[in-house]
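Lab notebook, page 48
Experiment: co-folding of the full assembly
Goal: obtain a model of how the components sit together before planning crosslinking
Operator: M.T.
Materials (sequences as entered):
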Amino acid sequence: MKKMIDSEKNKQMNKEALISLGLYLFFFIWWYGFAYGLGLQDIEDYSYIMGMPSWFFFSCIMGYLVISFGTWFVVRKFFVEIPLDEEKSSLNKRDRGGK
Amino acid sequence: MVNFQMIIPLILYLVFIFSIALYSKRKSSKVSGEGFIEEYFIGGRSMGGFVLAMTLIATYSSASSFVGGPGVAYSLGFGWILLAMIQVPTAFLTLGILGKKLAVVSRKIKAVTVTDFLRARYKNDGVVILSSIAILLFFMAAMVAQFIGGAKLFEGITGYHYYVGLILFGITVIVYTTIGGFRAVALTDAIQGIIMIFATIFLLMGILRAGGGIDNIMAKIAQTNPEALTPTAGGKISQPFILSFWVLVGFGVLGLPQTTVRCMGFKDSKSLHNAMIVGTFVVGFLMLGMHLIGVLGSVVVPGLEGDGAIPGITVKVMHPILAGIFIAGPLAAIMSTVDSMLILASAAIIRDLYLNYGSKNVSLEKLSKMSFITTGIIGVLAFILAINPPSLIVWINLFAFGGLQAAFLWPTILGLYWKKANAMGAISSMVAGVGSFIYFTITEIKFIGMHQIVQTLIISLLAFVIGAYFGKKPDEDTIKLFWG
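Observation: model returned without errors.
Model output:
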């Protein structure tokens, strides 16, 4: 775990909050784009993937996989394990079960 | 159609829940001295990633995710699944934006409630009292509504009377929350989350088998109700309406105290990271699965309606013992929503009101006894109100979900990320937010067909900024405490 002073911690936390917001926006665009991009045409013109309308397949089924994988990727790549306690002091009575 | 086979897995499940509460109780009685409050109300900040993810999901998936939502999907089709998917990224957004910052701050100030955090940030009695009242009032109404939903569902599936269900799971949730505190709430939430996952898998498999496979079912939908294949349900789901759910069950969830408090209770950064990944994966599975069941069910088991759809499908396509496991799913969702509110309402009284404004010097023994009793009394009160629900409670519940967001969203987020945020801003935002939400809901004033929460949150944001401009700046100590 990295040692950080408060201002560095804050900078990192702000960065992570912005990244989370960015991923959120990305999912929104994916969700919206496929649903209304493919779904607003005539029903007769729909194409189907695995039995489901293609807009649904891409927006919801693929969207689900994309956001699950996206979260995994973003957390692994950009999130840093920072200590949450101010400093390790003897005042900390409870053993937090560290490794 | 009283069915005994269904009751067996349910009873076993409730017994299991009780044993978890006893385990938590044993853990908490080991904690001595000042640790009691931290243990009882926040579980000693010891949640790991999996438990954090599950408790977050279980708390915000209530009766509506398991019964209400899929019931609408049953009649409207794929468009409503599209709407349900909006909830999927909410877990990582909440944890990503609030998680670490709140965890760090709440450890510094030893906060165990959202009000604790607001008190430290704004140093203002008005904020403390307003937020305690909002929590008590809205949670009470929401708990009663959840009790009613659960008992009705129980009646629909098992055929036993409304009161039997109410007594069975009402007492369960009150007892385990009272004796086990937050730790029991989080652990049972985790178990309940697992039950929900299995319930979804079993029912999805059941319906696919009963309908003769996905292609068969889809062909039938295309034949009988082609509008169900469109994202707008043939014009019934407008774009402004569905988009406003990105606020109501998306961004706005960051303001819900029952969500926020979970960001104070996890063990370390690693738990948070894992919870973001697991939480997104699981909530997506539940939303997609349950609502798909609703849509597919509309042709496999036709002729049902609304809240009756999921119970009806369950009884039809599943073996009674599996149905018993399934009914544990939504009941689990309901109990896990109630338990979080119960413990928070109790914390509002003990921690936020009594310890601040009542007695300052209270012995630990008395404090722990009072905490147990308060939790118990609130639970019993909600239970009694659910037996014969007064219309006032039903009415308040209309405002509960949005009202909590209106009250807490900006004071929480801006308190963490805006140095100029101050007490005047927070109070104006809470008053204007809750006030305008109630007003818009009663008068049904909507902006281009969006849910009222959108305009409400814009107003409460403006009120915050204007209030902050006129109010006193936060002092040096506060800035230092929150930003180092």
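Interpretation: Chain B has a mean pLDDT of 88.
Next step: discuss with group before ordering constructs.
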